[in-house]
User: Fold this.
Amino acid sequence: MILQQIKDDDHKYIMNTYGRFNAALVKGKGAKAWDESGKEYIDFTSGIGVNCLGYSDDGWVKAVTEQAARLQHISNLYYSPLQTELAKKLCEITGFSKVFFANSGAEANECAIKLARKYSFEKYGKDRTEIVTLENSFHGRTVTTLSATGQDVFHNYFFPFTEGFSFAKANDMESVKAKVNNNTCAVMIELIQGEGGVNPLEKGFVNELADYCSENDILLIIDEVQTGVGRTGSFYCYEQFGIKPDIISSAKGIGGGLPMGACLCSEKLRDVMSPSTHGTTYGGNPIACAGALEVLKRVSDKKFLEDVAEKGSYIKEKLLKIKGVSEVRGMGMMIGVVLEKDNAKEVAVKCVEKGLLVLTAKNLIRFLPPLNITKEEIDKGLEIFADVV
Assistant:
């Protein structure tokens, strides 16, 4: 099919919810993708942080195809050895006590919200349900996770939104304290606000917030959907802040390309959720678990994570030398690039034309390359980017 026919059929049959770039990708390997015409692209997006091992990684492909040939789905009405193995490995890596497997970041955040509210309900009564999140945050596109998102642009059309959320200013403990009341059960944050513009929180604020939540039995939920599974140079980003939250949500890279989300909880929350209080048909699917086990085996390796941090520093160093770049922020290989001309959308479109896939977030360019991208691929992509800028 030619691109125009693909676009025409897309516009005719698919709900118009995406602003797509002018490319139809049909295959990929590592950090490279090809479109229907055979044109090659360097990919600095990894499917919005999902393909952490790049396209069609040999080990990942072997794991998921072998599992698909054995058993593709059983539901959660039966024990699943692969799901159990994945849960054990994830808890051993992180030190968390238990995990619930879902299909996406939004679903993982829904579980986190329900877990926090049930814990508080059982300990303090039905009124202690409110959750404080941060302005400029993003937590998903379900009605409840949109309600938890601290951006007014998302609070439209879908009324009534779920009650019980308020929004404090990032890096401002007095603002957080002003939003907390006797009915607050949790504070929910991203350590780097990804969709909000790749804004890392200040370490001092995060540490003070963690202490404040602990002292007041307010659960600290950290949304690691975009920052987790090696993206920032540690397995989860919270490790670099020297804290241990009560709950984290995870998704994107954990499945290596298959839909998977996870909500992990601390020891004191391990028995809060009971049969029928939460569930999913697809969560913890055997094929997704097989892919995730391959991801965990590779990405949790200390040397692999050190390489992610080193490559992230390498990219930032080179970006700061590009004329037209005014600021680079982020951690590891979660990178935001502020342009002097404030023309991120235009630059992103031109990058695709030149053979480089990039993302935008607010008014900047965002890079989320595969974690195992090579230096040669980085250099080639940055050459295109510099030329376009």
